[in-house]
């Protein structure tokens, strides 16, 4: 506890206090109107990690693949398989695929039905015009991504969600049956002062809980706090 008895250079009072990090509980379900942002953040991180695990020179690119209107009534699984084939024809090696059933009208901000697929992966896109003339599919190369995580998070924030189908799928060189990825090592959260392992605690003191009812990191007096022992 020596680290808790020394003043910090940033002026935050930590003397004799404990570190408490408040995190809201989440169901991490894509269909939840409250927790979908947490779900999207977690999925975006997983997507970024898998893309970074593929050994290739070059950076990930963002591709938008849109089917012709004559195919809009097709089953989603079959339509997605066709999108994979179209992407490969324009030399997309493979990557993630996120389905969007709607687009937003820029002038009115209204959403209208227009199914398409957002893909983040690797390749050098060629033959887009020839592909359109032959198939009617529109392929737009949005270009190299400065931040894969940010791109994925944005796409997931308004992606199509279905109970029977995955929101994010993988194909080509990065398909699950083509590329195995080592599980990411996740470091246990620790106190920023002493490095001690964090445990769940609950407020049992008198009066209201001394920290705000929102996510954040706080240094508070130890009195009134107790280990939760798995209560929640």
Notes on the protein architecture:
It is a single chain. The chain has 232 residues and is of the alpha+beta class. It has helices spanning 36-52, 76-89, 128-135, 148-156, and strands spanning 18-22, 61-66, 92-104, 111-123, 138-144, 168-172, 201-203, 216-220, 225-227. It has a domain at 54-172: Alpha-Beta Plaits. The strands form 3 sheets. It has a 5-stranded antiparallel beta sheet with strand order 5-2-4-3-6, sandwiched between helices. Strands 1-8 form a two-stranded antiparallel sheet. It has a two-stranded antiparallel ribbon with strand order 7-9. The longest helix is centred in the N-terminal third of the chain and has 17 residues, at 36-52. The two termini are 26 Å apart.
Summarize the structure in short.
The protein has 232 residues and is an alpha+beta fold.
What topology emerges from the helices and strands here?
Layout: E1 18-22, H1 36-52, E2 61-66, H2 76-89, E3 92-104, E4 111-123, H3 128-135, E5 138-144, H4 148-156, E6 168-172, E7 201-203, E8 216-220, E9 225-227
Antiparallel strand pairs: 1-8, 2-4, 2-5, 3-4, 3-6, 7-9
Helix pairs in contact: 1-4
